[in-house]
Design brief:
Layout (H helix, E strand, L loop, with lengths): L2 E5 L2 E4 L4 E8 L7 E7 L6 E7 L5 E3 L7 E6 L4 E6 L8 E8 L13 E2 L3 E6 L1
Parallel strand pairs: 2-11
Antiparallel strand pairs: 1-3, 3-8, 4-5, 4-9, 5-6, 7-8, 9-10, 9-11
Length: 124
């Protein structure tokens, strides 16, 4: 069965960095968009950063611009999210989302496959 698996979360001090990884395997249809969402306790899920497969088109949430960077290793079928200058408000469960069908991709409901998440905790 296909799956999406995240890794790389953990505990870091404010101002520190983490690099999240996501691998997708065994999924149906061609890969269209890949990205990260997050959800903090008591809050709604929100988009962090997305990349359209086969292009250089990336989309970053305002809070992520300048501090978070998406990258992709095509040979390993892995997506990365480098997070620098982390703040306490970045505390959340981070989820990797994989889109294979349909034209829309900005909302979480547009995605077909999800990982179980990796927890990011920033201490002060």
């Amino acid at each position: 069965a296909g799956q999406v698996v995240e890794s790389g979360g953990g505990l870091v001090q404010a101002g520190g960095s983490l690099k999240l990884s996501c691998t997708s395997s065994g999924l149906n249809f061609e890969h269209l968009v890949w990205g990260w969402f997050r959800q903090a306790p008591g809050k709604e899920r929100e988009r962090v950063a997305l990349i359209v497969t086969g292009t250089v088109n990336t989309y970053y949430a305002d809070f992520a611009k300048g501090r978070f960077t998406l990258s992709r290793d095509g040979t390993k079928n892995t997506l990365y999210l480098q997070m620098d200058s982390l703040k306490k408000e970045n505390n959340a469960m981070y989820y990797c989302a994989d889109k294979r069908l349909g034209p829309c991709f900005l909302q979480g409901t547009d995605y077909d496959y999800w990982g179980k998440g990796t927890q990011v905790t920033v201490s002060t």
